[in-house]
Amino acid sequence: MWAVYIATRPNVGLARPWSDTEIEVVRSINPQPIAYYSGWDDPVAIKAKAQRLNLRPCLDDEDGIRLDGVWVQPNLDTVGSGLYGRQPVHNGRHAAFHIASWYLSNDPSATWPATWPAPGTPCGWQWRNTHPAFGVGVDSSWLDDWFGGDDMATIDEIYIELRGDKGHSKLDRILAKLDGPKADPLLGFESSTLWDGVDTATLHENLSAVLAAVKALAPASPTLAQDVADIKATLARIFK
């Protein structure tokens, strides 16, 4: 997921805000990107721009942009934004979400430092500063699933959508009937035997229902697209 920078005024301390056109490019990955903004910008105008472009505004509270101070909480309240910065920046502050800035030499695989007080809102952790990736300079972060929105579904969520009446996914029961009680190498779970004795007509009916549901999915991210492709490949193997 890409985050962006926005501004409504010139010379607010940002290296280079993104244009509207550039922001649209990342919507295939996330329909509502995080948008960092400067504390020197107009909070009312930032709120309006974020709403117009469907962004999650986030105040970039760094001394290199604007010194931290009493202005921060009113700014957050006006914009309804998230807050990014080092630990002191987050202490006692209320924001829509919080993103920690704390750089480590190793990937923490966590969305918030364990030694920092938890803010009780969605969290993120920018754990590595600018480094080359994908041909450009980027910062690396871990973010709670909340930031992805509805289109960042996981394969587990797809199973939930296809869940049958006994609490197991239809796909699980289909594989159980056809493959027996063994782990499926593609899907990574162990098949059960709930479909033993099911007649062929019922089995085909459920297969058809699952196939139709998978075909109806319109993934908006590369990760979800791969998940759906994996399910389709499994169904193709079953129907063969």
Could you please describe the fold and organization of this structure?
The protein has about 240 residues and is α/β, with parallel strands linked by helices. The protein folds into two domains: about 5-150, TIM Barrel; about 155-240, no CATH class. The chain is built from eight helices and seven strands, in the order E-H-E-H-E-H-E-H-E-E-E-H-H-H-H. The chain has helices spanning about 20-25, 45-55, 70-80, 85-90, 155-160, 170-180, 200-215, 220-240, and strands at about 5, 35, 55-60, 80-85, 100, 125-135, 135-145. The protein has a seven-stranded mixed beta sheet with strand order 1-2-3-4-5-6-7. The longest helix is centred in the last third of the chain and has 18 residues, at about 220-240. The two termini are about 35 Å apart.
SSE arrangement:
Elements: E1 4-5, H1 20-25, E2 34-37, H2 43-53, E3 56-60, H3 72-79, E4 82-85, H4 87-90, E5 98-101, E6 123-133, E7 136-143, H5 155-161, H6 170-179, H7 200-216, H8 222-239
Parallel strand pairs: 1-2, 2-3, 3-4, 4-5, 5-6
Antiparallel strand pairs: 6-7
Short summary of the structure?
With 240 residues, the chain is of the alpha/beta class.
What keywords describe this structure?
240 residues; alpha/beta; TIM Barrel; seven-stranded mixed sheet; globular
Q: What structural class do helix, strand and pairing data support?
A: alpha/beta
Q: Give the helix proportion (percent range).
A: 25-40%
CATH hierarchy: architecture of the largest domain: Alpha-Beta Barrel
In CATH, the topology of the largest domain is named TIM Barrel
The rounded distance between the terminal residues' Cα atoms is: 36 Å
Low-confidence stretches: 151-168, 173-198
Instruction: State the domain count.
Output: 2
User: How many E-type strands?
Assistant: 7
Q: What is the highest CATH level, the class of the largest domain?
A: Alpha Beta
